[in-house]
Design brief:
Blueprint: E1 19-25, E2 31-35, H1 36-56
Antiparallel strand pairs: 1-2
Length: 57
């Protein structure tokens, strides 16, 4: 009998405001934890830029 294994990785969503292990330093020198929401927002902005750039090419 042949059993297939799923090659998909399991994704466990994080709470949007939970720090994920990194931080940035703001203009006043304060450490700001990086959250899932911040990463998702940055990815959306990059995607918009990528799509815009591809349309111009």
């Amino acid at each position: 009998m042949h059993t297939q294994r799923s090659t998909e990785s399991r994704v466990i969503p994080l709470k949007p405001q939970r720090p994920i292990g990194g931080a940035i330093i703001d203009a006043e020198g304060r450490e700001i934890p990086i959250t899932e929401t911040m990463i998702q927002r940055a990815c959306r902005e990059l995607e918009k830029t990528f799509v815009s750039t591809r349309r111009q090419a």
